[in-house]
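REQUEST FORM: STRUCTURE PREDICTION
Request ID: SP-0412
Submitted by: Lab K.M.
Chain count: 1
Length (residues): 249
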Amino acid sequence: MKKPHWLLLIGLTSFALSAADTKDALTVGLAKGYEPYPFVNGKGVASGFDIDVAKAVFDQLKVSYQFNAYSWDDVMSLLRHNALAIAVGAEVSAARKPYFLFTDAYYTRQPALLTLAENRQIRRVKDLIGQHITGDRHSSLEAYLSQLGVKSQFRIEQMASKEEAINALAKGHVKAVIMPKRVALYLADKVGIKLKVLWQSPQPTQVAFGVSNNNPELVNQINDALDALRADGTLQRIKDHWSINDPVD
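STATUS: Completed
RESULT:
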């Protein structure tokens, strides 16, 4: 495994962390550049919808925690090797279930394949055969390409963040990006480009907390906390704050 690039962000619930507490804190991984879901803001602080949900869950559990920001590939690898306790904003997929556990889903996303709106040569997915695109491993699009029997004809590269992927698309280094549609449109607006959707998943993808395989009890605890947040309206208030719409966004 390559050495991950990381940023440590200490989170506190209702009590201060001592040195001993820090050692016992839950290590929580997040991907960089997934606005408005998980991301690191301009002050170097973990932010976004998934982060606010995670904080509310940890408040319910009365546990200390520390956020660690990586590329998404590094988050998945570290969780798989039990170097993280939790990953926030993990899309549930059959390909990932052998490697770690999932809590109940707490929202959905709409995965999509997008290219520049001005690109008249690319009008459908098959126009990208042989072209360089970027996206996460185990995405629903990969499953779709496998069904078409053309997955091996696409050059799919993983990048450190969705922001890097959008910048690569804007500069012509890649021809298309795979990511949640809302993330793509948000980042495209930041860099001043227009996108068009070539494909989007017919079914929204469920998003949950990923949990290391050696801690099934933590899954139960998080599920109980999520139930409490649904019951008292906290989860909906966080969704409203970040304009997160279910069943799809």
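NOTES: The helical segments are 19-24, 49-61, 72-80, 140-148, 162-170, 181-191, 216-231, 234-241.
Reviewed by: T.R.
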